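Is zinc ion placement plausible here? Inputs below.
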Amino acid sequence: MRSLREQFDFPIFLNADHTHSLVEAEEAARAGFDAIVFDVSALPFEQNVRQTKEAVEALKTINPAILVEGELGDIGTGSEIHEEAPDLLKGLTRPVEAKQYVESTGIDILAPAVGNMHGMLKSMIGGQTRKHLDIPRIAQIKSAAQVPLTLHGGSGTDDEHLRRAIAAGINIVHINTELRVAWRRGLEEGLSSQPKEVVPYKILPFAVESVKQVVRSRLRLFNGVEGQQPASARSSRTLRGAVEF
Ligand SMILES: [Zn+2]
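Reply from A.M.:
I modeled the complex. Tokens:
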């Protein structure tokens, strides 16, 4: 990471996504991660508050500049392709709890459950179905909690809902599964278009290009600069924000 930062003139950050224990989180902080997602959202509210507060204190002792993100509500696990849809309504984050959680723990960033879900359903891969978000809830959580919000499990979300979610207060969007799907598609294209090829550097660029296209189109959407621009006219380097893997 250090050599990448020195080589390029844009900021790159390391985020330890979903650490589930203080030991793991501290290990990441000591290794130099810039941000830590401390995720004990599977625990009851009071325990989640207590453990997250402890983690914030311990991690800021290691690095006062580190950003700690806490998670409240149920957004499932695993950037995978799921067979069946979970019942998302059960684990939605309540705005009043979000406020209490942020104030009691001292987290910098909140990851709420607002209709988002880790991974994608099979039907979302081809675009037959899409995730829909609870936009009013996002706005209520934002005004109650007053911190940056991360949308985990954003893959496969309806474009208009992503736009409205950002307008309502989402600051960071995770789309790991979309990128993994793009990677696999690119790899398959690299293999099938050159059936006799055995040179990795002739096959792997297809996967990189495929991921790049999704990153570029998502950054455009998140920055509100969609349109008919050719890909070369505006590189993803000029767009604000980050795509997290
Ligand atoms: Zn996540």
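Short version: The longest helix spans residues 200-223.
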